[in-house]
Model the fold of this input.
Amino acid sequence: MSQGGESVQGNFWEQVGGRPTFEKLVRKFYEGVATDPVLLPMYPEQPDLEGAIQRLTGFLEQYWGGPGTYSEERGHPRLRQRHFPFTVNPDARDRWLAHMRVALDSLELSPLHDTTMWGYLERAAHAMVNTFDE
Done:
């Protein structure tokens, strides 16, 4: 470990390939969202999802050790607060996870990196559920 607490091989963001990896993940994820009748209406800018793509890419990059641009531009992530206006029920969560699983599989990460990222994505998705109503 370095004095800063990073492994000798670098942080997670570097280990998985930096920005290109996260852009690929998020763009693939939004290919699924673009065809999802439950998730797509949650994006006020749709059908243009480029803003959402950039925001999610920046957030995930920052979370995993990349540049802090997301917080510089948008402040604290406040994920639950930002998602509160939308109906995030178990069906929406499961759809989000299904599209994210396809996207994560497209990266062909090592089993350790895949498991690490998937664990976070699952926890985050479950934490966003704000209603059990249909």
